[in-house]
Amino acid sequence: MEFRVLKYFLTIADEQNISRAADLIHITQPTLSRQIMDLEEELGVQLFERNKQNRKFLLTEEGTRFYNYAQEIVQLSEKTVEEFKNKDSEIFGKIYIGAGETSAISTVAQAFSSIKQKHPRLEVNLFAADASVISERLDKGLCDFGIFVGYNNAEKYEHLILPQKNVWGLLTHKENPFAKYKSIKRENLLEHYEPIMISQQALAKKELLDWFDGSTERYNIIGSYNLLFNASIFIKGKVCSALTLDGIINTSSESDLRFVPLDPQITSDVVLAWKRGVKLSKQAQLLLEEIKRAC
Q: At what angle do helices 61-85 and 3-15 cross, to 10 degrees?
């Protein structure tokens, strides 16, 4: 299995069309078709469903599994090449960061802006996901850093606490009665039986479960989310409110949304983490040093 063939496979999967993929790769379509057929023969599975009517190439179930592996192999290979190409006198390449949704990433953004002024060829690759996926990518070497809300997922890594703390609260529509509250008590949610969405990992945090008095069974929990932007569409549609962190979604006076903190207040530290015992790339080390100065 050749590295270039993996990139061919990924291009076809992304384009869903072998003619466009061949044009992008700058090889002929018959040559590309033969390379993919040889790959399928080597693996012993069919990677694509070929639709002759619309000429679409859609991934099979086995193709989807292989796509995830191929992406990781290509990303790790490119990351490794970048690290070894860096010379002492010139620092360039990508810094890979996996992060949950948090406004505290602004510290990282400011640090990156500062080092990019001195090293203009630096790039940053941001990957948004929940803590379990970020942790997995850190373990596999696909991310230089992971940003976690709280300590739960960062204890096995080297880490530092970013300056900003996140406050938990209720994101609601501006016409919802709760939008006028200064803070939200759990009795308020019970009294009005407010429909709520909660992030998939929120209740794994002890402080939040304690706020709900140990159980959410009495509350009107209608669903969960892992990206607040998607949940905010439900809120704008007046379907529900959402328990979330502050500073992620625009809640200015021009917005239809309002953020109301919980009472008693719950705050969470935001942690920047990296693999223990692994030497960071030059560009990642440069960013870390800049962030440490800000902390």
A: 120
Strands (E), 90-190: 93-99, 122-128, 145-149, 158-173
List, for residues 199-236, the tens digit of each pLDDT value: 877 776 777 888 998 888 999 999 999 889 999 999 99
pLDDT in tens, 30-50: 999 999 999 999 999 999 998
Asked if 129 contacts 200 with a C-beta cutoff of 8 angstroms, the reply is: no
pLDDT digits (tens, 9 = 90+) for 176-197: 999 999 999 999 999 999 999 9
Please give the pLDDT value at position 87: 56
Single-letter amino acid code for the residue at 269: D
Pairing of strands 267-274, 158-173: antiparallel
Query: Is the pTM higher than 0.90?
Result: no
Q: Does residue 264 have a cis bond before it (omega within 30 degrees)?
A: yes
Could you tell me the CA-to-CA distances from 13 to 7, 21, 24, 59, 137 in Å, in that order?
A: 10, 9, 13, 7, 22
Contacts of 259 (CB under 8 A, 6+ apart): 169, 170, 171, 244, 246, 249, 251
The answer to whether 72 and 138 are in contact (CB under 8 A) is no
Query: Nearest to residue 204, comparing CAs of 274, 131, 142?
Result: 131
Which two tokens mark 276?
């223990």
User: Which band of pLDDT confidence, cut at 50, 70 and 90, is reported for residue 88?
Assistant: low
Backbone φ and ψ for 51, nearest 5 degrees, come out as -105, 105
The full DSSP string for 63-118 is HHHHHHHHHHHHHHHHHHHHHHH-BTTB--EEEEEEE-S-TTHHHHHHHHHHHHHH
Q: Strand 56-59 to strand 196-199: parallel, antiparallel, or no bridges (unpaired)?
A: unpaired
Here the tokens at position 220 are 């009107």
